[in-house]
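Final report, section 2: Outcomes. Of the targets proposed, rRNA methyltransferase 1, mitochondrial is the one most frequently requested by collaborating groups, and we therefore present its record in full.
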Amino acid sequence: MTFVNKCVCGLRVFSGEYLCTTSRKFYSNPSYNHGLTGCGKKGRKQYFVPENLKPKAEVLFGINPVLLALKNGRREKFHRLYIKQEAWDIDNDNEGVQIIKEIATEKNILISYVKAGVLAALSGQRPNQGVCLDAGKFPVSRFSGDEKQIRDSLNNDRTNLSPYPIWLLLYEIQDPMNVGAILRTAHFMGVDQIILTTEKSCKMNSVVSKASAGAMEVMTLKNLSQGRKGYLSFIQLWKSCGGSVIGTTSSQHPKSESVIDYSFNTPILLIMGNEGYGVEQEILDNCDTLFTVTPGTQEANIVSSLNVSVTTGILLHSLLNKMTKS
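The predicted structure is given below as tokens.
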């Protein structure tokens, strides 16, 4: 066996096979999954993907992401479904896996029954629940930055039961686990539209899909480009359509207020900021209101802030609760 490449994002490449080693010295993640950082269980076993089973695109993993991706069919193409071999050697009663198999059969998707080690290599050692899917890129359309698009969407693309639409702008959020958790919460809460910044932001990949419990696969996401200029232009367009812009900041900010004290009667654009530096000052200066989540303990200086996905959930729940009662 000839060594070709020392390590390609978690899969040590040899002639004829991909080898995923979980030793502490050599592990990472498959290059076809955007070179995502981190690893699941660590051990000393070695798992490989045979040459004839190599994925062609991105590998989704886990029952919900795979099931919702197949049901909604928004990705460019589905190349192959991988199912844990043992799941069909015994009487498996997992309804989700059975539905996945049925949909894949209907769509004429190639199905391969593989050992758990192959799934481990495909998913980069992440929990896969016995299912992986080789799928095309998830579509994220570009927001055109036109007032008519905003007005049309405000009037027609409603998902929540509140009197006013809520849009969410994710400003340069980088951790795929955070983005996935936010998407899951936003879908559950009925956020009408999610706008993503393109610079310094996480891509919509398989880890995001898994962290969102598959919610990403059913959502319409839009990219906002042109950097700061594009963001500020979008904020002004939103205001011209009669909406209010809410930024988020720390409790120490002089202009911050609690969501509990806020009342409104307009569509809301809620901006959630980067995990480290939050939302830049020029954008905050263009917000109508700045929200903060106040701590419930005198020892808040020990842990001075909340995770961005947790903060998003608190604020969305509070906003929707106030809307439905107004």
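Residues 308-325 form the longest helix (18 residues).
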